[in-house]
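Quick start: what a row looks like.
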Amino acid sequence: MLDKVLIANRSEIALRVVRACRELGVTSVAVYSDADEEALHVRHADEAVNIGPPPAGKSYLDVEAIIEAAEETGADAVHPGYGFLAENARFAAACRDAGLVFIGPSAEAIEKMGNKSAARRLAEEAGVPVVPGSEESASADAAVETAEEIGYPVMVKAAAGGGGRGIRVAEGEEELRKAFQVAKREAESAFGDGSIYLEKFLAGPHHVEVQVMADHEGNVIHLYERECSMQRRRQKVLEEAPSPGISDDVRQQMCGAAVRLAREAGYANAGTVEFLVDGDDFYFIEMNTRIQVEHPVTEMLTGVDLVKEQILVASGEPLSLKQEDVPFVGHAMEFRINAEDPDQDFMPSPGEITSLEVPGGPGVRVDSAIYQGYTIPPFYDSMVGKLVVWGLDREEAIHRSGRALREYRLEGIKTTIPLHLRLLEDDAFRSGEYHTGY
């Protein structure tokens, strides 16, 4: 078993890892910027190290500072959480070179799956369906040639992209040439890599992802899927499982495809394989080589602690359960609570939380790192919490979610709670037939 884990992240995911470490008897080390000195993950960790000023580039993205903090505290492993350096192959390699266990896949697996066009090739080798598209296009002319082969509309996507950035849709040649240049500039700015590829644009598919877990002995399992189609500007708003928009047959085929892909990639630790589902057809789009924001949905549905499983696998342990042992009970939903005003075009709303009442009761979980009197800094992602709700079926989960959202009182800032309450009453959401075009 690992002895001491440094958590290279902040806020609720850092606190989530601290709690998993404590249950396993593992010492936790938090890192924090000047802006996070009073953060809950700092208060709850066994040790904490300041790694720099508020801008992420000078703290949470500073590889050298994080490695130095791990060495100073005698940590033997690093958990990257999600975001920041979680899918950075250079960071994973730097941890390994410093003699630290990286709690995630190998640098080689991150590199292999992190490049979207390379991941497409691997999926094809594993017999996993992919959206009709192209290899990397070096020029707008090459992109136009590909679009004429697969047909418009097309999606212009950054090969090194993520989080919905570096994506544009084009309906014709003129629009494609403009979209190519914009996406290329955005990709270079966000990821330092302007490589672009094309995919056929599907008008109204479901965005469904499959949670996988693998160990270092070649064992790979899936923990079923999550429906992620409720999105704003390609950013997820809420997630649920199981997906109400797919059949049991599609579920079985898609989950099996995700396992094949992870095995083909020589993958170990937690990962998520993302698909677009169009009727009875599904297509691989990318793999996230980390724990996901929405992992609690799967935990509520299966009862499996994914973060503890990550730490155990990184310690060299085999998976704690086999595929046939994975439970699958009821229905779960996660609502991302952001410090934004949904009635003012989602304007960010940092500031002090003057009053806080957190919901509870059966089947209700809140993952957050805020407290009354805490000031949300303006430097990072606007998500301040995740409300996760479980019910015996989808109907009960919806009713319970409404009750819990009304109990969730957050004053001093604007949040997306009112938006979630409206969505719960929406006919398209209630029917379960919503898709990414909603």
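That is the whole record. The first strand starts at residue 4 and ends at 7. The mean pLDDT is 95.
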